[in-house]
Prior knowledge:
This protein has 472 residues and is mainly alpha-helical.
Amino acid sequence: MFDPVIAPSGTLLGLLQRGRGDGTLHALTAPRAEALAALNHCVLHDPRHDWQVENRSLYYARLFLDLNGELDEIEAHLFDPEDALDSDESRTGLALAVLGHLASYGRRGALALLRRYAATGANWAWALDELALRDDDAGLRALAAPVLARFATDAEGEAELTAAVRDAFEPRPWRLWADDPRASIATRVRAAHEAGCFDRWQRQMRPTGPRPGWSVQAVFEWAQQGAERGAALHVPAARCLAAVAGPEDRPQILRAAREGTDAARCTALRYLADGNDPAALDLIESAVSDGSAAVLEAAVDAFERMRDVVAVDRARGWARRPDALGAAAGRVLACRGAARDHDLVLAALREAVRGEGPDAPTLWTLVDGAGRLGIACAAPVLRHIYRETASSHLRGRAARALAATDPSFAAGFAVECLWDCEETTRELAARHAETGDTRVVERLRRLAADPAEEAEVQTAVRSRIGPDSPTA
C-alpha cells in the first residue's frame, strides 16, 4: 500500500485523517461543503498507516450521518474504471466498511451500493463480508449467481472457488448458497466447501519443519535454509532448540551465538535470552557491535524479551548508549523499570520524539512506560505525541498515559476522546471525561444508546451516567 500523505494536525483534514475527536467537533461547526469534502477525501484515500488494525470506518460513518452526507463520491470511487486495474483491498476497503456501518444505521442507499459492488466490483469479497453481517437472506441469495459467475467451471476456476469458500471471513453467504434451491448453485458451493476441507486436512497431514529427534545442528541448518529463502525462522527455531537442546549442547549454542551464520546467531541469541542464560547479555552486546543488520535486530529483540533483574540492571547501564541497544534499554526500563528509572525513560521518550518524530515505533513502549511510572513531567511530550501522531493506536496510548500523568486530562483531551475513532480511547474517555461539560453528558447518552457502539464503551458510559439516566 502507498504511504498516505497526512495533512497538518491543525487543519480539519488533518484532524479527520488522524481520527481525532476534534475532527468530528470541528467538522460539525465548519461549512458543510468543506466538511464533506474533507470527509470524502479521507474515505476515498485511506489515511491509515496500518489499515488492517486502525479503526476509521465507524468514525467516518457517524460523521456522514451527522452531516447528512450523500454517497455520490463513494459510488464514483467504487465503480471507477480503475477498480478493474487496481484490485488491492486498500483502495476500496475503507469505503466499503463505511458503507457497511451506514447500512446498519438504516441507509438503504449504502446497502444497495454494497450489493451492486459485490456483484461487479474487484474487491467483491469485502463487500460480501459487509453484507453477511447486515443484509437479509433474500439479498444474499440474489448475489449467488453473479458471485459464482466470477469463477470459471474448469479446474482452475473451481480451485479458485474452493479457495474463496475456504478463506471467507464471513461464511454466512456461502452456507446460504450451499442450500440454494438452484442445483447449479448449491452443487458448486458444496463441492467447493468439501474440497476446501480436504485441502486443509491434506496440509495437516504433510507438516513441514522440525521433527522429534532433531539435533541442535539440524535446527540451525533449518533456520539457515529459511534465511536463504528470505524467511526469518530464528524465532520458531529457538523454540525448537528449547525442545531438543540439553545441558551438553550449551557450548555449541554459545559458539553459534558468537560466530555462527546469521541465522544460527539469531536463533542462538533468542534461545539464550529466553532461557535467561548468564552469557546472553554479553553475547547480545557483542552481536550489536559486530553483527549484521539481521543479527543486530534479533539481538535487540531478544534483549527486550528478557525479564529478569539482571537484564533490567544492564538496561540501566545501556540506556544512554546512542544506538539501537540504548533505545532498547529505554524500552526495557519503560516496561519493567522502577521509580528510580524515571529520568532514563523520560530521556528516551524525548530523544525518540526529537530524532524520529511523533510516529516512531519505539514510542509505543515509551509512552506506556511514562504512564506506568507516572512521570508527570512527561505530560508536555505526551500531549505533543497525542496531537501530532498519525497513528490512532499511539494516540490512544498517549491518552492513557496522560490520564495517569496530567491533571488537566479529564477536562481537556478526555472530552474530545469521546468522539475518537478507536473504541479503547472512547472507553478511556467515558471513564475520565469531566461531566461538568454539557457536551460530555450529551455524548455519553448518545454512546449509550448507539447500537453500533462497542460493549466495553457502553459499560464505561453507564458507570458514569447510571442505569436510570435518560438515553436521549
